[in-house]
Amino acid sequence: MNFSKKTHRQNRAVAQTQKREKTTDSRRPSEPFGHFPKPRLSVKTINMNNTIAAPDAKYAYASLWNRFFAMIIDCIILSIPSAVIGHLLPGAGAMLIWVFYGSFMESSSARATFGKFLLGVQVSDFSGNRITFKAALIRNLMTLVSAAILMIGYVIALFNDRKQTLHDIVADTVVINGKSGETLGSVWNAWIANIRMVFGATESGIANSENTLSQLERLEALRKNGSLTEEEFQAQKKKILSL
Length: 243
Fold this sequence. Notes:
Helices cover 65% and strands 3% of the residues. It is mainly alpha-helical and 243 residues long. Among the domains are: 119 residues, no CATH class; 46 residues, no CATH class.
């Protein structure tokens, strides 16, 4: 009897041992020995390793408070010129002064109006580069729209990562912290230099257009008097227009 109980206990222990081994085997991975699955990188891990980052992530965007106080400074600076021009051109004078001032200042080497420069912010493209006069002109024209729609164009900056206002979005610009290499005394010189450059390019373009027109007129005269065939005329005309 005792022998039977002892045998029964041994058989029961063996069965429990086999059951535990079977359970352990079922939990082991099916991969061969020495193979370990690659860990999955979460989005958080990738961002911490800087393997995926926005092209402009290294720039700190200017706060709306700094931009607001910069605008106040600019308004104070422009108050007298705006009053004078506004007297000569009621309604449109002040807007023209603002657009003219902002466009040439922000596209200059200073990259900022006097107000922005004093507050330590500047306007740039998404790569942190100086913007063109065209982009600055579009931006400053759109500031009038941003203000006209109950300042909603400015409030938009609270709801996007780049803190872009409506006029920033339209012009593909951002306002970031930092100053250009200009000093306060040279900001004025940068503004004047940019005005000369823009108007110089305009004058050059007008001169080139007049030169092209005169060449086409001479070419037309040669065709009429028979000095050029139609094929020669078209070839020369194409060459002039491609310059």
